[in-house]
Amino acid sequence: MGAKTETVLNISLKTHLLEILTPLTPLLPSELAIQLSPYVSDPIPQTVPYSLLQSVSQWTRTPAGLVALQTASLEPQSYSMIALLAGSVTSPERKFPAYIRAKSPEEAAALKKAERQAITSLINALLSIIGSGFAAWWAAGQTGWKNEWQVLFSLFIAAVVAISEAVLYLIWDSRRSQDRSPRKLKVSAKRRDEGEVLDVSRIEHGIPLGLRQRARRTATNDAMS
Fold it and tell me: Which stretches are transmembrane (predicted)?
């Protein structure tokens, strides 16, 4: 069996961490002091192993470590793992994959709806192209054109319809993207909230609601119930 490779976890060596570790070096046991010495002397490295910080923190909680800290007038709380890791970055030399936020149920439903609409639009466009090409071929045949002219005419009409459908699809897709932009969604939510506040204000002042406001309020109450 091959030897297991242990993943080394490094911690960024910030200024505050260096200031905490430097006065502790002379107090540590010889073996631990030798391990820590390269990280508190010039040239200062960018990172320090997590396991080394953990060993230092564990030693400061031993009876010998507490006595040494009291003798040097150092605070034991400064050497807890929480204090040592405060403000530091885990393995800054590594490139972790970007965080991808999970879609909410509303976003997932809207995405599926948009996909269905796009598929439907593409199918309709394909049927329109085929239908227009066939209709042009049939109409050209009724006028007595030769077969090669019938084919060329039907291909021309199908190409024109295909270009038109592509332009319409691009326009529809761009408008859909604008409607789904975060700014548009925020504006829509703000208008909805303002409309609800206005309805409440009208009711409080005894002003009757219009048909549209009453219908919207009824639909909201039905959804909540």
Answer: 122-140, 152-172
Question: Alpha-carbon torsion 139, 143, 148, 152, what sign?
Answer: negative
**Residue 214 token pair:** 């009453």
Domain locations in the chain as residue ranges: 10-85, 114-161, 181-225
- pTM more than 0.85: no
Judge whether 128 and 161 are in contact, CB under 8 Å: yes
Q: Cβ contacts of residue 79 below 8 Å, gap of 6+?
A: 20, 24, 56, 57, 60, 69
How far is 46 from 67, CA to CA, in rounded Å?
31
H-assigned helices in the chain: 15-21, 30-40, 50-60, 63-71, 81-85, 105-142, 147-179, 182-204, 211-224
Token readout for 92 is 């800054």
Q: What is the DSSP letter of 180?
A: T
Average pLDDT score, the chain: 76
CA-to-CA distance for 61 and 26, rounded, in angstroms?
17
136 in Cβ contact with 158 (< 8 Å): yes
Q: For residue range 77-100, what is the model confidence (pLDDT) as tens digits? A: 888 888 888 888 777 666 666 767
More confident residue, 213 or 31: 31
Nearest in space to 157 (alpha carbons), one of 128, 140, 138, 133: 133
Q: At what angle do helices 211-224 and 182-204 cross, to 10 degrees?
A: 100
